[in-house]
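We read letters as residues; the fold follows as tokens. Both lines appear below.
***
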Amino acid sequence: MAEKEYKDSASRDGYIITLYTDNSSKIERLFIQRDTRKELEKIWRENSNGEPIPPTCSNTQYLGKKILDTFCNGERKGVIGDYEITREPNNSISLIRTYGKGNGMQGLRECAAHFGFEIDPKWNNRQIAPNLIKFIHKLDKADKDAKE
């Protein structure tokens, strides 16, 4: 499969939207420290068949390691559903969610809501993504202008 050709992108507050020349898009969310634990708990609940979070997993590092040990054969990096979990050399946990396989619209909606961008109900993914990218660029420009 040929690699898609890049057209435009925007990145802000952990959200990354990439638009390709065929007007398809990729939506990712990089979880920052304060949100990582909550999302790891969600991953555990969705994959542990009802098993509670072990009491030894009292912080993000321990829970991330437990998830990697349990669901990714103890590897330092693994993919569980839409999530890529990495245990860094300093043992901190990085978490990226890539919205795809039927939930790209969900990612666009979450991102739009985060930034206060109103989506026209008639738009599809291919219309939302470029408009959301333009909106984020305007936010970035406004921030830059405010600093000058």
Notes: The CA atoms of residues 105 and 138 lie 22 Å apart. The chain has two domains: 6-26+103-147, 33-98. The longest strand covers residues 6-12. The mean pLDDT is 92.
